[in-house]
Amino acid sequence: MLWLLAAIVVVEGIVLVFVVLGLRRLWLQRIRGDEIIAIEERVLELMGRFKQLADTKIKTLETKIEQLKSLIQQANNILSALNVLVSEAEQDFMRLEEALEKVKADRNDLQVMEEKTPREFSPDSTAVEDVALTSVDSQKKTEEEMGIEQRILLLNSQGFDEIAIARKLGIGVGEVRLILSLFSRRFTRD
């Protein structure tokens, strides 16, 4: 009987060990399942945060893109306006060059007439004075008909400095400098 009792105790011990091992396995699986669920929840939470962050960044980028498009459009408009101004300035400069050539030709004609005029005829001659006065009057009319840029360039070509030009035309020295620098760039560019 002892033997039987020992066998029953051994069998109960073995069953108890299997039950404990089975319960342990179930407990570990439950813990692993809870851990997996917790990890899945954390992953879903992180994915939600990432999506929210990505949406915010995308909206910010779209806003910046729209601002850049607006700035590019403004820059293109300004560039077009500047091209028009440069074209007009070049046309004004061409007219100024033509007027300057005409003035030089008139001066040369006047010098030729003075050289051809005999010295003894000088005191009595009013024709030379009339031609000189007419040339000066036509030069003043030409200067009045010219734009401010042309007059500035003409006075500069005659040797006037920026301050003298500004005083003579009644404008600011800065404006004179600006116009002279714009036209000097055109010369250096060509």
Task: Characterise the protein shown here.
There is one protein chain. With 190 residues, the chain is an all-alpha fold. It has helices at residues 2-116, 127-145, 148-157, 162-169, 173-189. Helix 1 packs antiparallel against helix 2, helix 1 packs across helix 3 (148-157) and helix 3 (148-157) packs across helix 4. It is built from five helices and no strands. The protein is rod-shaped, with a radius of gyration of 49 Å.
Helix-strand layout with pairing:
Blueprint (H helix, E strand, L loop, with lengths): L1 H115 L10 H19 L2 H10 L4 H8 L3 H17 L1
Classify the helix fraction into a percent range: over 70%
Structural class: mainly alpha
Number of strands: 0
Number of H/I helices: 5
| End-to-end CA span | 126 Å
Can you summarize this structure?
This protein has 190 residues and is an all-alpha fold.
What are the salient characteristics of this protein?
about 190 residues; mainly alpha; 5 helices
